[in-house]
Design brief:
Length: 219
């Protein structure tokens, strides 16, 4: 099994990944305006997120509008909403499970139970990383394709915001932590397969003498 220090390092990576995943889901700056055209005089930054659109004016005012209608949103935003929420839930489950399965904790029972808990937590982290990476890549692809489209006016073009980079980094941290936790439970079993326990064989004379002794007792 992996050392306690390696598991603690993976746990810290997963913890940062969970916080980053939640922050990326809630932040409104998934895409920001490209700061082109004449509108930059009255509005410094226009941001669009999964749940709201915000505008930061040059006067210092900051206004946001929630996206109440789900069906009116593009498909990639709807998919990003669902998968990012699932990523947050799975990563939170992974934190709870790996807390029980880590070697540095006194929870989870014996060594085999801790190994199974580490494997289950690692799978949760890997799934959370995949659920966070796929929608972020899809969202970034839509931003880039719209930015390179010549038919779209310059004022409607956007660039990836800070939430996109936060989601990418968080997904990477969760994947790394999940791989470490998932592979940590195989090392002990692999050693048992390579070096099987020795079986003690008694000499035939000793076995026969013991058998004879038992028969005499019954007679």
């Amino acid at each position: 099994m992996a050392s306690a220090s390696l598991q603690f390092f993976a746990f810290m990576l997963a913890l940062f990944g969970v916080f980053g995943d939640i922050a990326a889901t809630l932040l409104p700056n998934w895409k920001v305006n490209a700061d082109v055209g004449s509108n930059i005089i009255t509005a410094i930054t226009q941001m669009q997120g999964l749940w709201m659109d915000c505008t930061w004016y040059s006067t210092g005012m900051f206004s946001c509008t929630l996206k109440y209608s789900v069906l009116s949103l593009p498909v990639y935003i709807q998919a990003a909403r669902t998968t990012m929420v699932l990523s947050c839930i799975l990563s939170a489950f992974g934190i709870c499970i790996t807390t029980v399965g880590m070697k540095c904790t006194r929870l989870g029972g014996d060594t085999d139970s801790k190994s199974h808990a580490c494997f289950a937590g690692g799978v949760c982290f890997i799934l959370a990383g995949i659920f966070g990476l796929v929608p972020t890549s899809w969202y970034t692809r839509e931003i880039i394709s719209n930015f390179l489209d010549q038919n779209i006016p310059e004022s409607s073009k956007h660039e990836p915001g800070g939430a996109v980079y936060t989601a990418f980094i968080s997904a990477g941290l969760l994947l790394i932590a999940g791989v470490i936790f998932s592979t940590s439970c195989f090392k002990k079993q692999q050693g048992a397969w390579i070096y099987p326990p020795k079986q003690h064989h008694f000499p035939p004379t000793e076995q026969e003498s013991n058998a004879g002794y038992n028969l005499k007792d019954y007679v």
